[in-house]
Design goal:
There is one protein chain. By secondary structure, the protein is α+β, with helices and mostly antiparallel strands. Helices cover 24% and strands 32% of the residues. It has five helices and twelve strands. The strands form two sheets. It has a seven-stranded mixed β-sheet with strand order 1-2-3-7-6-5-4, sandwiched between helices. Strands 11-10-9-8-12 form a five-stranded antiparallel β-sheet, with no helix packed on it. The protein starts with 8 loop residues before the first strand and ends with a strand. Biotin is lined by residues 18-20, 42, 45-48, 51, 53, 61, 63, 107, 117-119, 136-138.
């Protein structure tokens, strides 16, 4: 039996369509906050913006159900809590001095290649408060997809010997609990600082794709709402709420 910090309840399944779908079904049926749906394989793993998520056996797939007394916008802070926690969890697993960073909004990179992605989904009640929030996390532990828009990697490819999905989940939950408590007690500002300290590309020229259109600018900061702040050559600052980020020499 895997040991998790108090307050979490683990459900382990073999093959599911998507742990996020499974978690949604369970959330609608009344699953308690802190329930984690973990599967060893997904047949229809989903990524952000309608993409597929490569999901063979050997990697980590799980979805955490949270019930938080806040709005969907405030709940977005959990995206940064989760990315910061996964960054710290993986930094503790790879060999010392290996570069582990976060890329807006919530990708985790090892040596500039994507090893983990996070998909947040939520349902809101009539009063605007979250009914549930699902944090779906995938980590390439032993393999990674070849054909991806952004270069991918796995823990094994980066030299981690014998890493097991369970070990990564346990490390993530430990760090998640820590950063979640900070977010609850201090609000988004401490998380924003922690995330920025782990971020790649600040002050650099990046390409941003929003609704199929690509523009270039300097990655300035993230806003109080987690949006990406980019300064164009014209001096105009753009606040991006949903989109994809690439280094300027790609796409
Ligand atoms: C992304 O980077 O595009 C987000 C990827 C999120 C993948 C995880 S795997 C577990 C959970 N179930 C899914 O179908 N998606 C998330």
């Amino acid at each position: 039996m895997m040991r998790l910090p108090p307050g979490f309840k683990l459900i382990t399944l073999e093959k599911v369509d998507s742990t996020n779908n499974e978690a949604k079904r369970r959330a609608e049926m009344g699953a308690v906050s802190g329930t984690i749906v973990h599967a060893s394989e997904q047949t229809h793993g989903r990524g952000r913006r309608g993409r597929q998520w490569y999901s063979p056996k050997g990697n980590l797939y799980f979805s955490l159900i949270l019930r938080l007394p806040c709005s969907a916008t405030e709940g977005l802070g959990i995206s940064f809590v989760s990315a910061t926690a996964m960054c710290d969890a993986l930094a503790g697993i790879v060999s010392p001095m290996t570069e582990v960073t976060v890329k807006w909004p919530n990708d985790i990179l090892i040596n500039r290649r994507k090893v983990s992605g996070i998909l947040l989904e939520s349902a809101t009640g009539i009063n605007g408060t979250l009914r549930w929030l699902i944090v779906g996390v995938g980590v390439n532990v032993s393999s990674f997809p070849g054909e991806t828009e952004y270069p991918a990697t796995s823990l094994q490819y980066e030299g981690v010997i014998g890493a097991r999905p369970d070990d990564v989940l346990r490390a993530f939950m430990r760090h998640f609990k820590r950063w979640f408590d900070i977010w609850e007690n201090d609000g988004f500002s401490s998380i924003r600082t922690a995330w920025l300290n782990r971020a790649t590309g600040i002050g650099k020229t990046i390409k941003v794709r929003v609704s199929g259109k690509v523009f270039e600018g300097e990655f300035l900061d993230i806003g109080d709402d987690g949006s990406l702040l980019v300064e164009r050559k014209t001096g105009e600052t753009i606040s991006v709420v949903t989109g994809d980020v690439f280094p300027s020499d790609e796409i």
